[in-house]
Amino acid sequence: MPGRIRRQLISQQLSALEAARAQLAAPDALPICPLCERPIPRSEQDAHHLVPKSKGGRHTEYLHRICHKQIHALLTEAELARSHHTVEALLAHPDIARFVAWVRGKPPEFRGRAFKSDRLRRR
Fold it and tell me: What span, in angstroms and rounded, lies between the C-alpha atoms of 1 and 35?
């Protein structure tokens, strides 16, 4: 029969193993990006104000950093506040829909660049 210390060690190892299994069994532990519907790793989480703070917005959604950058590369804050202040409205924008269709095939840790649209660069 094992001693008291050995039983404690075994108990600690079993509880650590159960915790690790529970973490692996719960894929919903990471938030899901409402745009591309991929899990967001902690290092890639960005909080996006659906209505920009400068326009009085308070509610935020967690997005992939690349999705967040692409939104701001394509739309101005006034456009976001006026007509693209929901996830559905963002997905209805043709350029964002094209981007989302492309990025959905990438792994969750994918990092890319967002380029300002020509329309915004000319401003």
Answer: 57
The pTM (predicted TM-score) of the whole model is 0.70
65-74 helix and 94-103 helix, angle to the nearest 10 degrees: 160
Element (H, E) at 46: strand 45-49
Question: In this structure, are residues 78 and 55 in contact, taking their beta carbons and an 8 Å threshold?
Answer: yes
Three-point CA angle 45, 46, 52, nearest 5°: 160
Q: Using an 8 Å Cβ cutoff, are 31 and 62 in contact?
A: yes
**Contact indicator for 112, 100 with CB cutoff of 8 Å:** no
Neighbouring CB atoms inside 10 A of 99's CB total 21
**What φ, ψ does residue 47 adopt, rounded to 5°?**
-90, 125
pLDDT digits (tens, 9 = 90+) for 39-86: 999 889 999 999 988 888 888 899 999 999 999 999 999 999 999 999
Q: What angle do CA 63, 69, 74 make, to 5 degrees?
A: 115
Q: Which of 78, 103, 108, 109 is nearest to 91 (CA)?
A: 103
Q: How many CB atoms lie within 10 A of CB 4?
A: 7
